[in-house]
Specification:
mainly alpha; about 0% strand
Length: about 375
């Protein structure tokens, strides 16, 4: 079994503590606008944590996480629209584009409790059905990636075509409250940010515990030697399905919190481009580490928001170049930089010691 060394555990704990400290200090140093912007990045990081588990640990390139992000987002948005309309009321966009009657499948979402349950249960059920149909038939690699991306493309087209019930291309927006709290109150903005930060921290801790568990070791073994794991009597499909379901639930929760933070959810937020963006952040941060995926997602989202303001046409090329450079030079992502720096330092220290004792340093590649 593979276990973290004592120094690795210490560095991971130090990274977690530093990240929590930075998140706690953010409300004191950021403006209300910047704080909500950071909360948005945290929601995207929640999706990245799940992708890190499924792709980094399990080897499943999940390019369709926009489906689960969109399910959580639209479920929450539908509830908020119904809450703003009042008991028995009709959302404003239905009066403009629809028949003025709330569809029957919207009605259960008037309850906040039902909405929260569906945000977890519905993506989990869909991921289980999809995972069972795919992994039981041993579909993997590029075939699974293409299938998941086709699914998210179909989902976006479906949302666009249902203008009367989903808002079409415009999506759902104009929310005034979130679970009874006024979304225009700056105090509630801080509460919403704290909720996003707390949820992200819990997700990271859950994934860290899963990595250290026997199931986490089995998931890693399935990624590297699936046939051998099957030969030993385990069911690789069940392991993969579990990881896929967890990643789907994380993405759905991130989408649900994204809606009150940003104030809108549309097909552009859940389509193919958005799903690829999730993958880019995870790859740049380091998909196989615990903190790499969320930190990478936050960094890419921040860079996109900041640089696109000054270089709106060039940012896309810069993002693609960064992705290519990281994959080519640092396949393990930016999270591998500390380990690389330590290896370089140890090598230089060894060369210096050998030189001081009059022994020539070994030539790389020699016996």
């Amino acid at each position: 079994m593979i276990a973290l060394t004592q120094s690795s555990r210490a560095r991971l704990v130090a990274g977690l503590v530093a990240s929590i400290a930075l998140l706690a200090a953010a409300p004191a140093v950021l403006s209300d606008f910047r704080l909500l912007l950071l909360a948005k990045f945290l929601c995207l990081a929640m999706v990245a944590v799940g992708i890190g588990l499924a792709w980094g640990r399990g080897g499943m390139l999940t390019m369709g996480q926009g489906v689960f992000f969109g399910l959580g987002g639209y479920l929450m948005a539908m509830h908020l629209k119904l809450a703003d309309a009042g008991p028995g009321g009709v959302p404003d966009f239905m009066q403009l584009y629809g028949t003025g009657v709330v569809p029957a499948w919207w009605e259960p979402l008037r309850s906040g409790l039902v909405t929260l349950l569906l945000i977890v249960v519905l993506p989990a059920a869909l991921a289980w059905l999809l995972g069972t149909g795919v992994f039981r038939r041993r579909v993997r690699g590029a075939y699974f990636a293409i299938l998941s991306q086709a699914l998210v493309a179909a989902f976006a087209i479906l949302l666009i075509g249902q203008q009367q019930s989903t808002g079409g291309t415009n999506g759902l927006n104009g929310f005034r409250s979130f679970l009874g709290y006024d979304l225009t109150d700056p105090v509630n903005h801080q509460t919403l940010y704290a909720l996003c930060a707390a949820v992200l921290i819990v997700m990271v801790l859950i994934v860290r515990q899963l990595y250290r568990s026997r199931w986490g070791e089995l998931l890693l073994a399935v990624r590297d030697q699936e046939n051998r794991v099957r030969f030993l009597g385990y069911d690789p499909a069940s392991v993969k399905i579990t990881a896929f379901v967890i990643a789907a639930v994380f993405a759905s929760i991130g989408g649900a919190l994204f809606v009150p933070v940003v104030g809108i959810i549309s097909p552009a937020d859940v389509g193919v481009t958005a799903s690829i963006g999730f993958i880019v952040g995870v790859a740049i941060g380091g998909r196989a580490s615990v903190l790499g995926p969320p930190l990478g997602a936050i960094a890419v989202a921040w860079a996109q928001t900041s640089l696109s303001e000054n270089f709106p046409s060039a940012w896309t090329y810069a993002e693609a170049a960064l992705f290519i450079v990281v994959i080519a030079v640092l396949p393990a992502g930016l999270a591998s930089l500390p380990a690389l720096a330590r290896r370089v330092t140890h090598r230089r220290a060894g060369e210096a010691t050998a030189y001081a004792h009059g022994t020539p340093a070994p030539v790389e590649g020699s016996l």
